[in-house]
Amino acid sequence: MLSEENNEILTRVGPGTPMGELLRRYWTPACLSMEIPEPDCPPVRTRLLGEDLVAFRDTNGEVGLVVEACPHRGASLYFGRNEERGLRCPYHGWKFDTEGTCVDMPSEPATSTFKDRVRLTSYPVHESGGIVWAYLGPAETVTPFRDFGTETLPPERVYARKQLARCNWVQTMEGNLDSSHISFLHQYNGAADIPDDGSDKPGYPSNAMAWKFWQHDGAPRLEVHDTWYGYRYAAIRVTPNENAYVRITDYCVPYTTIVASNPFTTRQLMVVPIDDENCWRYNFTSQIDRNPNGYGGAPLFSSVPFDTPFMNPRSGITPREYTAENDYRIDREVQRTETYSGVRDFVSQDFMVTESMGPVYDRTREHLGTSDRAVIRMRTILLKAAKSLADGAEPPALAAPGHDFSKIRSAEKILENGEDWRVLGTDDDPVVQEAMLTAEPRD
Ligand code: FES
Ligand SMILES: [Fe+2]
Q1: Nearest ligand, CA of residue 183?
Q2: What are the Rieske domain coordinates in residue numbering (predicted)?
Q3: Is the same domain home to 114 and 60?
């Protein structure tokens, strides 16, 4: 449970709020590169941390991220003409370059110097890994880009997409950091009938067997281990053969989760606040995947009765077909006989529970148990960072010497006798060393 005051601090992201100021200190996804695919293409609206912005790519391919409202009389620059190295307002023709400089003001006399005194607010951007990242904080506190591995990703391996969640960003984060719900929300009756393929033993179980383990032990033991970037936590389940099956998820301040995968992964999930009541779920490849088994998505879903929607190949935005308005297309007969949720789309099962809490959940009314340990730890870290920033402290997990974001990996395994889960997925894990040294890069 949180006090009303802490819930406000945790959830509000607008300019001037404690959390809004903290989030502005990190390079943050503003849109997908695919949304503005070529020079002089149409601009896109991108609301970020409660600010209405427009992103555009100029004639030279440079990206501009500017305030949507024209500084003249407020018309939306989304409707602007993107031409000859600048975005021109459709109302009176004022034109701005990617830095926000007014380069033309045809509605004033040619002799006027007024245009030299008008600026459009523009934020620094950096394109990496198929994402346009922006820095919305004070210019004097900008720190280098946090490279999760995207800087060296060859163009043909770039993969990024996003999907809209209609709720406060913290609710979505708390779902990503909650290993316990996979034993319920995402379950289906047929999991009990999955044949035992012999992988319930120390080592790496098959994805199919993992579903059995999730169903078998609904009350995992959670252990949270603090790190320089946030924490790693292990959800430890007892398998039918009484082994210790561990799923390790990473949390990197402020909005990154790397969800457990077998044997390990670096795949990013970022929850980016649009405003207090909406957020984007960004999902992207951060580096060449040398994981011999790869991301568990495809093989996992081929054996279970759930759908995964495909992103729009033109924009990179995965559409929402299961929404609050259609009750996430819940099928009560399916819920009674086939799946736990009755919702066919896997991610929409998550949307159903996180969005139904309301746009900004009132955490004074909750009752937290031991399975919420990782959720509580994230809140504690974020609240402390937001309050300390107001007192002049540096935010955690910024780019700095010794901070190698590309080495943050989640993992999954059935432990050997006496094995320490904290080693899994790190440079000291033999399976990581082997993959890095010997495996061919995967597509
Ligand atoms: S409102 Fe944009 S030029 Fe007048
Ligand atoms: Fe989930």
Answers
A1: 2
A2: 27-134
A3: yes
